[in-house]
Amino acid sequence: MTFQRGMIRWYRKESRKNLPWRKTRDPYRIWISEAMLQQTQVATVIPYYERFLVRFPTVHSLSKAPLTDVLDTWSGLGYYSRAKNLHVCAQTIVRDHGGSLPAEVDSLLKLPGIGRYTAGAIASIAFDRPAPILDGNVQRVLCRYLGIREDPRQPEIQRRLWKLAEQLVPAKNPGDFNQAMMELGALLCTPREPQCGRCPLSPDCLARRKGWQDSIPPPRRTAARKKLSYPCAVLRKGDSVLIARRPIATLLPGLWEFPGGELRPREPFLAGLRRHLADRLGIVPKNPKPCAATTQILSHRELELRAFSCTWSGKLAQPRWYMEMKWVPLRHLDKVPFTAGMAELARLLRKESAG
Ligand code: SF4
């Protein structure tokens, strides 16, 4: 049995068939699933995928929606540039392709935000084109199977792996083959403790024969996370608090937060709070008292969030930096598409007021 037939046979027998994107060949749905699955666990993606497709069932509906609606629906999934790219890409597909995703890799690659991996996944899974894919899972399987011990993130190794993926993808059932490679990496050829005894590639796998599974791929040298501090204000009117929507062209675009901002190096929390409330809302905080704190871990940053309960002087009119702001009853804060750290602050505030 060839490598490809063995992988497809294993996939058809052992793969997770209940994943919602495995029950469709609709290119739009495949595209949305691939965008969501980048950098994100399958279990996290499933409810977001289902909710997104109820809200935006077609390319047309996504293209016509305000970007803030797309970001709200995406809120909590992280890496928000993906949502912005989906939106602009849907508009391009409607304008240039009549609302249908193109089938060929070359055309897919011309769309904003679609890279080589996503183009290969859409072309092979939705359109049966023999297009290669290479993601972290496929990379690990290929490197172990072939005993490639160099760092697969190096450009020349990337080129070699793409070439291999291109040579391997079969003309018949390319989508199943590509998904088989990814699924093997996700289920058996895992970063730690791969289950070689159950693997269809086991007889010819060089890493298994040499006992190199643990050292392939070599560990990534991780840069230390940058530490940032972010004071914010809890301003109250009756039983409501003020929240503000972040601008689109920032980190965590379009998400809501308690108004505040990042500290400069060595700037005290209250000085930073005063500066940001003056710049962003045009008010001066009065009697600030610490009321909640948490730490949010982002991909390259660690954000220390401290909330201060304040009164204020000055007129709260139009926001100067935020897109919009509104008063929300404390008990409704759990419905707000906050950034993850701000959602935790909101949870602490609700808990404190309930207790
Ligand atoms: S035999 Fe083990 S190391 Fe080799 S591909 Fe299979 S799971 Fe990975």
What does this structure look like?
There is one protein chain. With 355 residues, the protein is of the alpha+beta class. The chain folds into 2 domains: 3-215, Endonuclease III, domain 1, CATH 1.10.340.30; 226-354, Alpha-Beta Complex (Nucleoside Triphosphate Pyrophosphohydrolase). The chain has 14 helices and 6 strands. It has helices at residues 3-14, 27-37, 42-55, 59-64, 67-74, 81-97, 105-109, 116-127, 136-146, 155-168, 174-187, 206-210, 269-281, 340-354; strands spanning 226-237, 240-245, 256-257, 284-297, 301-313, 324-329. Strands 1, 2, 3, 4, 5 and 6 form a 6-stranded mixed beta sheet that branches. Strand 4 and strand 5 (301-313) form a beta hairpin. The longest helix has 17 residues, at 81-97. It is elongated and about 75 Å long. It starts with a helix and ends with a helix. 37% of the residues are buried. The mean pLDDT is 95. Residues 141, 144-145, 188-189, 194, 196, 199, 201-202, 205, 207-208, 213 line the site of iron/sulfur cluster. Iron/sulfur cluster (SF4) binds at residues 141, 144-145, 188-189, 194, 196, 199, 201-202, 205, 207-208, 213.
Per-chain topology:
Layout: H1 3-14, H2 27-37, H3 42-55, H4 59-64, H5 67-74, H6 81-97, H7 105-109, H8 116-127, H9 136-146, H10 155-168, H11 174-187, H12 206-210, E1 226-237, E2 240-245, E3 256-257, H13 269-281, E4 284-297, E5 301-313, E6 324-329, H14 340-354
Parallel strand pairs: 1-5
Antiparallel strand pairs: 1-2, 2-3, 2-6, 4-5
Helix pairs in contact: 1-11, 2-3, 2-8, 8-11, 9-11
Iron/sulfur cluster (SF4) binds near residues 141, 188 and 201.
